[in-house]
Design goal:
Order of helices and strands: HHHHHHHHH
Distance between the termini: 101 Å
Number of strands: 0
Largest sheet: none
Structural class: mainly alpha
Shape: elongated
Radius of gyration: 26 Å
Oligomer: single chain
CATH topology of the largest domain: Tetracycline Repressor, domain 2
């Protein structure tokens, strides 16, 4: 029996599927270009400089294209924040070194990672960092952006909490917030001093001091909890100085 030949209709359907996939790829590329143009405008002119027409000019596309993908300025800003958050997380993932529980010097390794993160943001993507903080300030003026910012914050804190747990933190979630607040403070300080390049050595020292203190606090809390559990299990009470022996 001869194999059945593909019908003309099937061939047309496959060709149509390929063309549709190609259009989708081009559409995603154009959408991404619009978002990146939005971030460049934010860095250069702030939120007030972001209009559909200005973004279209910056992206080298038509006004119709920007309004097709983003019907309002609010949607444009929201999606720009979402896009930046995704790229920032990806950049963090690319530079972080795996911190296993058996790393000989976990505090030094984590401090080096955080210092590299600050340098990557401030040096490699300074315009993106300016756009990030412009968007953060815009959240205060536009509450609709808050859910996107909260989701991004949660992802960052989850990543940092994982490292905090490896360092022996007594409260990884709380320590993650402290580390993230310090990191952002150092980034803002660097942005306010454009004539000075941050020193990797200084950043490492700052983070090592912070992480070392958090680790010591966590260990002290764990030791106190262990002593308390032992006391309760044995049915006794800790001896008091000067009391009856």
């Amino acid at each position: 029996m001869k194999a059945a030949r593909p019908s003309a209709r099937a061939g047309t359907k496959r060709a149509g599927t390929k063309r549709g996939a190609a259009r989708q790829v081009r559409g995603e590329a154009k959408r991404r270009a619009v978002l990146e143009a939005t971030l460049r405008l934010l860095a250069r002119e702030g939120p007030r400089g972001v209009t559909h027409r200005a973004v279209a000019t910056e992206a080298g596309t038509s006004l119709r294209a920007t309004t097709y993908y983003f019907t309002s300025r609010e949607e444009l800003l929201t999606e720009a924040l979402r896009h930046y958050a995704a790229t920032a997380i990806a950049r963090f993932d690319a530079i972080r070194a795996p911190l296993a529980a058996d790393v000989a010097t976990p505090v030094a390794a984590a401090a080096d990672l955080l210092a590299a993160t600050v340098l990557s943001d401030v040096v490699d993507d300074r315009a993106g960092l300016v756009a990030e903080y412009e968007l953060v300030l815009e959240v205060g003026r536009n509450a609709a952006l808050e859910p996107v910012y909260r989701a991004w914050q949660a992802k960052l804190e989850t990543l940092l909490a994982g490292y905090a747990a490896l360092l022996g933190s007594g409260d990884p979630a709380l320590d993650a917030r402290l580390v993230l607040a310090t990191l952002r403070g150092l980034e803002l300080e660097a942005l306010a001093r454009p004539s000075e390049r941050p020193s990797r050595r200084d950043l490492r020292a700052l983070f090592a001091r912070l992480l070392g203190g958090l680790r010591a606090t966590g260990r002290a809390a764990q030791t106190a909890a262990a002593v308390s559990r032992t006391s309760v299990t044995s049915g006794g009470e800790p001896r008091r100085r000067g009391g009856p022996q």
